[in-house]
Design a protein that fits this description.
This protein is an alpha/beta fold. 29% of the residues lie in helices and 30% in strands. The strands form four sheets. The protein has a seven-stranded parallel sheet, sandwiched between helices. A hairpin with a 2-residue loop joins strand 8 and strand 9. The longest helix is centred in the middle third of the chain and has 15 residues, at 255-269.
């Protein structure tokens, strides 16, 4: 076990560097060198972290310096490059890695550019000889996605396709370097696997919709995800060579801003604009000032494969992050590795993409300390059982036994008798809808009889409340209502999230 560790965080007072400091600052064994080009900015950042148990030292450091002596003088054990944009590092893009190897210092980065991350393997022999690791792409893309795919593909004889995406909170805060990276590749051709071969994709002009829904929790609204240039597009096909489709997207919100970025990306794809890089300051301002919606985000990964007898399997992993915890996730892979080094288990020497250096269990231990929730779903074949059990998945077992019995609806009708309260809206529209369906009048402690019966994949609920009879059909939602219960009363349909709370649904 290591008693102390000096970690140099390049870009330490920036968006991602600051979040990494937040994750590590409670450990008194760490000395965090908060580095950047401005000593004043680094000092101000450190002075604000009054609750830190780790030692915070502001330092001046430029990652592009050619002199390895500047790095050696700081005597770090480990360097984390959290600056970027990695897509714009130029011809001498790996200078910091070379200096780390020369000084015998471990190196990690949060690179999100597929070309940059793929090129790090060229330093593998040198890193091995120096006895250090140089790990690139140590972030959600591709480390977390690869860990999830390993979990979801357990028992599959082949992985045929991998899709995933991140939907950040509109209040997460996006740094200028991230915006510069997005603006540099939006609409430009990038390599990705499609139809079993390597071909060109065009970020932000290729989209899909998905509902991030952890069973038993309120899901995100149906979100449009657009293709982004991330290391997964290169790294995952190498790990799962039978995958004929690998696609990763982002779902920035509000949706209106996302559509505007898509329109601009199409202008680049049609070669009406050479690039969007010149718009980066405007995009950054709008992204960080035009905000509305819920302060929560999510992520998903879908793996399609085959079982041992050739049958199709589709499994999904969902993540929901509440409030300010979601923006920390991209830095958690670095946190996991730093904690492994402190525990005396440094990554193996060599230069590579970091997709095998953090497992999903490592993430789950960190998620458990925050309001971050994950779960898996099997989408195909559809799990056997009644409707609510299918939709709730593992959350079904959190329900009290009486609720499990109530929602175990079969082909033989079951009848329940009890008392209820009825509330009704007071608007004219509410009166018209309630009258047309046959809803009862408002009241307290009214007698109610409910008859439930399964009709194929649907359930019919027939109710009689104080002499007013009406019925509905419940089924699994589709499309925008994926993972919800759709209840139809004649011409009127509502979509409901199944939220499990202590003792109730």
């Amino acid at each position: 076990m290591t008693t102390a560790l000096r970690v140099l965080i390049v870009g330490g007072y920036g968006i991602f560097g600051g979040r990494l400091v937040e994750l590590l600052q409670a450990d008194a064994r760490l000395t965090l060198l908060v580095a950047g080009r401005s000593l004043e900015s680094a000092r101000e950042f450190c002075e604000r972290r009054t609750a830190a148990s780790a030692r915070l030292e502001p330092v001046v450091f430029d990652r592009s310096t050619r002199d390895a002596g500047a790095l050696a003088a700081l005597q770090p054990t480990l360097v984390v490059d959290a600056s970027g944009p990695f897509q714009a590092y130029g011809d001498d893009r790996y200078r910091l890695i070379e200096n780390c190897i020369a000084c015998g210092v471990h190196y990690l980065d949060l690179a999100d550019g597929s070309d940059f991350v793929a090129g790090v393997a060229a330093f593998d022999d040198a890193a091995r000889r120096a006895g250090v690791c140089a790990l690139s792409g140590v972030s959600s893309f591709p480390v977390l996605t690869a860990a999830v795919v390993r979990r979801l593909s357990a028992g599959m004889s082949a992985v045929l396709s991998i899709r995933g995406g991140i939907a950040p909170s509109p209040y997460a805060g996006v740094g200028m370097n991230v915006i510069r990276a997005i603006a540099s590749y939006a609409g430009q051709p990038v390599l990705r696997t499609r139809g079993g071969r390597l071909c060109s994709g065009h970020p932000f002009t290729e989209s899909m919709r998905f509902v991030v829904a952890v069973p038993g929790r309120t899901p995100l609204r149906c979100t449009r995800f657009s293709l982004v240039d991330v290391p997964d597009l290169r790294a995952l096909p190498k790990e799962w060579p039978l995958a004929t489709d690998v696609w990763m997207g982002a779902g920035p919100v509000p949706a209106a801003l996302h559509w505007a970025l898509t329109a601009l990306a199409w202008l680049v794809r049609w070669r009406w604009l050479p690039t969007l890089s010149w718009l980066a300051p405007v995009i950054a301002f709008v992204t960080n000032h035009v905000r509305w919606g819920e302060h929560r985000g999510g992520m998903f990964v879908v793996v399609r494969g085959r079982d041992d007898v050739g049958g199709e399997l589709v499994r999904e992993w969902h993540l929901l992050a509440e409030g300010n915890d979601g923006p920390l996730i991209p830095c958690m892979a670095v946190e996991a590795i730093v904690r492994s080094v402190l525990a005396g288990s440094a990554p193996a020497a060599g230069a590579r993409t970091a997709i095998h250096d953090v497992e999903l269990a490592d993430y789950e231990a960190l998620f458990a300390q925050r309001t971050i929730f994950t779960a898996t779903r099997q989408r195909w074949p559809v799990p056997p059982g009644p409707l609510y059990r299918q939709l709730l998945g593992q959350a079904w077992h959190q329900l009290p036994q009486p609720l499990q019995q109530l929602h175990t609806v079969g082909a033989a009708a079951s009848t329940l008798i009890g008392r209820c309260s009825v509330e009704r809206g007071r608007s004219p529209l509410a009166w018209v809808v309630a009258k047309s369906i046959g809803f009862p009048r408002a009241g307290e402690n009214l007698p109610i009889t409910v008859r439930l019966v399964a009709e194929g994949s649907e359930e019919r609920w027939s109710r009689s409340v104080a002499g007013s009879a009406f019925s509905s059909v419940q089924s699994a939602g589709r499309g925008r209502a994926e993972s919800l219960v759709r209840e139809r009363f004649g011409a009127v349909a509502v979509d409901m999230a199944l939220v499990v709370e202590p003792g109730r649904l």
